[in-house]
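Recall the central idea of this unit: under ordinary conditions, the amino acid sequence of a chain determines the structure it adopts. In this exercise we apply that idea directly, starting from the sequence alone.
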Amino acid sequence: MILVTLGTQDKSFKRLLDAIQNEIDNGNIKDKVVVQKGYTNFASDNMELFDLIPMEKFDELIDSCDILITHGGVGSIITGLKHNKKVIAAARLAKYGEHTNDHQLQIIDNFSKEGYILALDDFSKLGELLEKCKTFQPKEYNSNTSKMIKIVSKYIDKTEYRFNYKALFILIALLILIIL
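Accordingly, the structure predicted from this sequence is:
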């Protein structure tokens, strides 16, 4: 089964679903395709489509999928990696109105260069990436959460609990990284 997740962004990512539908139509995808489409308006007789999926159901789907195709959100990519899934990621781009900027390009590029995921840069090459998934062995993902907690704790200890806007900003940024 292929799980497709477009996140909860309030913008459409129809371009990715069109590419998947094209691969189904061309016979390159024969697997069941389940899609969490968020706010993307899309209909297909070949995919099981959901706006949003409750977390328990999402966990079941991620556990049972063979491939995760996702947008370039850090949370979605890391979720796939934590579940030892082969991940194909495609960036939402500002020029198509899919996001406010192109930061997902950098996220995908970094994960791809490290060998964690396959990057879908050219949507017409999705079939080739699906074929590559058959032999692709993603690098094992190891969380830095405990390391980040130690860094934050040391920083808090050094600031002696005096109020400091810079320290607060850094602490919030580090906590966001931990959550992701």
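The beta strands are 2-5, 33-36, 48-50, 67-71, 86-90, 118-119.
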